[in-house]
Amino acid sequence: CGPDPVRREPKGGNQTRKPRKSNDRNRSDIEIGRWISDYHYRNVISHRAALARGIARAGMTAADRPSDMLVLWGGVADGELQLEPVYSTQATPRVPEERGPYRITGIGSDGRTLWALDFMPGEDGHGGRHFFFMVPIEPDWEDSLDRIVLTGPEGQVAVDREDERAITVVTERGTGRIRAILRDWDGVLPAGLRGGEGLEIATTRGLGEAVRPRR
User: What is the pTM of this model?
Assistant: First the structure.
């Protein structure tokens, strides 16, 4: 098997920028609803099954039963790194299939590395790249996880405790299939989902809420 894609050593460099906020809040699609961000997200969803192939197990062994996972997703669009708002879901781990020049790292409030994934993002066929990973949430992360840093050839971008972007995830009850991911949701579902039964809706605002243990 190939090299371990999970590293525990912190990577140098302190220059970070905050993720760009998307102004595109009106796009819609039958399955996904209002698009959350740049075009690359469409391909994250359509290729998420492919990303699950051959999950590497390096300190993140998939359990028989789903547990609380932190969803890490984003990509590269127009030559810039994109790190989307994180959220949690009930699932099994999904980590990189192979190492590459990109790294996503969780940094604790004391500066220690909580996790680090080296990876090669997938191509979306439109000149962009994307990634979609899920890592097990540790009980102490609600207090200890300070920021998430994405680095690559294009530079560095981070999400920290001051990032209060809200994200709403609509899934099918039972299957967990994602039906919509909405930014700054106003309480009205996309037309294709209105009146639908068997849907679960969860809104997360900020890093602290994303890693808060489910009661």
Answer: 0.69
